[in-house]
Predict the 3D structure of the following.
Amino acid sequence: MDKKQKILIIGAGLSGSLLALRLAKKGYLIDLRESRKDLRITNISAGKSINLAFSDRGIKALALAGIMDQVMKICIPMKGRLIHNLDSSVFFSPYSGRGDKHINSISRGDLNAILMNEAEKLPNLTITFESECKKVNLKKNTAHFYNAKTEITEKVKAAIIFGADGAGSALRKSMFLQREILFSFSQQWLKHGYKELSFPAANNGGFLTEKNALHIWPRGTYMLIALPNIDGTFTVTLFLPHSDAKYSFETLNTSDKVLQFFKEQFPDALEIMPNLVEEFNTNPVGALGTIKCSPYSYKGKTLLIGDAAHAVVPFYGQGMNASFEDVTVLFKYIDKYENKALNNAEIWSKIFYEYEKERKKDADAIGDLAVENYFEMRDHVANDLFKKKRALEMKLEDAYPDRYFSKYSRVTFNDSMPYSVAKKIGNAQDKAFLNLIEDDVINENTSVKELFDKVKQKTDEIIA
Ligand SMILES: Cc1cc2nc3c(=O)[nH]c(=O)nc-3n(C[C@H](O)[C@H](O)[C@H](O)COP(=O)(O)OP(=O)(O)OC[C@H]3O[C@@H](n4cnc5c(N)ncnc54)[C@H](O)[C@@H]3O)c2cc1C
């Protein structure tokens, strides 16, 4: 394949920077464009959430890019969920019965900076900031960029154009609007939005609450979560209905109401939130939605990747991990085809076709799983049936580390299992577990061997 033809990547966020780095390492000529200022030199937020849950699929993708040594240094392990009850008591629910398995809290900005620093070391790659893609002309393979500071519009022609420009993708809009292909698109908003708040660091720079856990205050129709940051602070996220509920972003419209709400619902959190009212009144409310579309590509010339192709709600902590995994899967096909005796257009067509064939069903699956987990986190994690199920599952994972995997483990810790398979088996297994507990066929006195056999048999029956 001719590597001197220009590849344009729109969006230097998480997936765009990783894709650019990996392609440039292979020798391709990369023009990476980002609408925002350079987050490494300006004090801007990296967008969306401040920190993220980073797990095995993401780790695998970054290891393939050769940067995990650096990234490990900014990871804080979270070994499970620390559930905070209304009476301020807590209980810990490990993510896995396998002791060594955990997820990590990571700063979006720091991670993005590592990816960009590594990418910029390569001579065949340039990053242009404050360059916003307005549209892509699919027939001509040109992208139109606008720089708000200079007011200059630029037309960039490239052999291949990747849209890594997030949920509001300009490339995806162009694929939709230009009607060159039958392009399907759906966007499903949740009734809930989110607002980011914080816990400060302790005076000595330490943590005011447990560092190595993802904290959750599940309260039915709303929920608070907190993830640790390296500087001792926590990023706290409130998920709440936008409107049409007793407590909503619409009804919490005075400082007194906000304080009262936290006092009633999250009393132990409130104790360590000196800036609650100020942050609540200042920070924006974000919307949460699932985006699905098809096809991801246009005639072997353009490809949507990451959130641009499949934005998901954050309740499985997988959006970024899935976006990184996109790059892993894409490279499987780049490696397969790049040295074949075909012309460039034929090679990229094959790569995009096979990539999409594999990836679409898995991206759709994680989108569905994330919405399902929203209800689980909000409603079930503190529910007795769920707690019993979780305790029995941990027993099984501990006794059969190579044979039993909960749905959460399949999604989060099993990077060789496609999301669609994790969803199919995981949902059947969950159903089997809950039915068996409700019918009192299994309980805490059941031997692990019997537990394993009964759950497996019931799961197989449900799948059949
Ligand atoms: C509240 C919240 C919490 C989350 N928590 C987690 C989590 O715990 N774990 C997890 O795995 N995922 C999480 N996610 C999902 C995760 O943020 C996304 O899946 C991930 O950021 C996708 O990366 P991306 O690079 O595809 O898109 P983005 O991160 O959106 O990056 C797109 C980039 O393109 C740039 N851009 C946009 N438009 C243009 C344009 N027209 N021209 C040029 N550049 C453009 C943007 O400025 C940005 O830099 C969360 C999301 C939210 C909203």
Notes: The mean pLDDT is 95. Residues 10-16, 33-36, 47-49, 52-53, 132-133, 164-166, 168, 170, 194, 286, 306-308, 314, 317-321, 323 surround flavin-adenine dinucleotide (CB under 6 Å). Residues 189-287 form a domain with the D-Amino Acid Oxidase; Chain A, domain 2 fold (CATH 3.30.9.30). The chain has three domains: 6-76+107-187+290-375, 189-287, 383-463.
